[in-house]
């Protein structure tokens, strides 16, 4: 995605945002509430057509005008509200709208067998696939929603805040699941504001702030302090104070430039922002 813009009336949700994900890579998309994370993935998912910018898939420019377009390209999304049917069982939820049939009848056995195969492959713990999803735990419901997204063998899987409502053990289960997705070769976009989760599974971290790119990091060599500084704009915290002290020292002594912990905003075109840092 390049130069993506999106506004809702007077609200500029996204301004000139760049974003990409590769096969077998987990990219965390982080940012404060209202930073534009959900809007960006909804552009990718075909929910919101962008006002400007281009999207390339496998090197070709594509138009993603509807969720069906995204699905055809192999982009699957697990939205924050999961959108499961509580009264239906796990199998019915997985195959809803794509039911397997045999001689005009629902192929319940085939669907159940493939549901178990998929859950096993994901090392997912679901007690039964024939109980209504209403009776599952939060982590299990998330698992069902993720498994459902895999039915069409997508290339990219987008997860919007998959661990936000989960406890510690359930979170660990979902993080395991994300690693399985990477192993299967999917490109994974993980929206999260939990830095521990991000550090645990992401390969790369992309920060949005106020609808713009505000830094991109290798998860292996970034600290959560740095990420939080990028997320908040670091106007007033110890990290930014240290950085500005360092900068003052650098200005006094131009040769010494190493050791600054705050990276510059992604592409250095954010006039007026980060005034205190
Ligand atoms: N459908 C919509 N209509 C109007 N404003 C919206 C809509 N969706 C998002 N916004 C606004 O766009 C901004 C970015 O929102 P969002 O992408 O949901 O942020 P995040 O997911 O990072 O919390 C917010 O100011 C939000 O209020
Ligand atoms: Mg959101």
From TrEMBL:
Gene3D superfamilies: P-loop containing nucleotide triphosphate hydrolases. InterPro entries: AAA+_ATPase, ABC_carbohydrate_import_ATPase, ABC_transporter-like_ATP-bd, P-loop_NTPase. Residues 239-277 are annotated as: Disordered. GO terms for molecular function: ATP binding; ATP hydrolysis activity. SMART domains: AAA. Keywords: ATP-binding, Nucleotide-binding. Residues 242-251 have a biased composition (Basic and acidic residues). The keyword Cell inner membrane does not apply. Residues 1-235 form the ABC transporter domain. This is Sugar ABC transporter ATP-binding protein.
